[in-house]
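For consistency, the fold was encoded as tokens, which produced the following:
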Amino acid sequence: MAAIIATTAATPADRSAHPARRSAVAGFLLALPPVVVIALFVGVPVILALAFSVGFTGGLNTVIAAVGQNVHRADGIVPSFGAYGDVFTTEAFWQDLALTLAVTVASTAIVVVLAGGIGLFLRLQGGRLARVLSVIAIVPLFIPVVIASWAILTFYAADGFLRSLLAQFGIEGPVWSYTAVAIVIGSAWTSLPFAVLMITSGLQSIPDALIEAARDAGAGTVRIVRTILLPMSAVPLVIAVTFTAIGVIGSYTVPYFTGPNAPTMLGVSLASYFTSYNQPQQSLVMAFVVFLAAAGIGALYVWANFRSARREGRI
């Protein structure tokens, strides 16, 4: 009798648990296909590339090890770091790394300042001019990067529009084609639309009541921006910074078309090592350097999401 009562008493809990289990299984099955695709087409190649960079040339790495030059092979199960030594002892690599980091910092700062200025102007001032600026800022989103890079290259060339215009007034204009300045301009051009959309949406989500209350209390525009708008839009701002920096640090098209031959950004350099110099191991070392730098930047994105989730009580 006691067993029957215990079974009957447990039945409602069991019945309520079944839908939760079915929901969990359904969610797992829905999430499984993209996870499998990422694991097969991203995870496995990354593992193979990491193994090849330290000298494990067997298995799926056999062909590329056979055709590649200056390949360092592991001694049994002992990895070889010869490829890392080849790269890290080359002065050109450190020059390329310095240029890559400098362009990334400069481009990200310019994008954040421009996007933040447009977002703040649209949030505080509004009007037709602010809407026009926000529309113009997302125009690069619809222009192919190759076309934009070529336009920047010709615009700032020695016989380009800028120098021709300034020459009409007796001014000798700068030549920025095939320089780091052209890379910064191109990177800022291609990265601005996403940053504008992200930062503007974050600022627009702040309630008007907070701004009006601050104004009623005598706060000026600078204080409103510093104490209300920027803190409450910190997460979108961090996301914009993160995605901009990651996009710039791993870019190829813009620095390839507009940048100098040497030093150049690591995206172009590692492609040259792989295709022109036929040194796949050394190119993979550079790729992992870019990956580690991007992972460090991506930590900001993870922190922003964690902060947002904790503030909303989801964790």
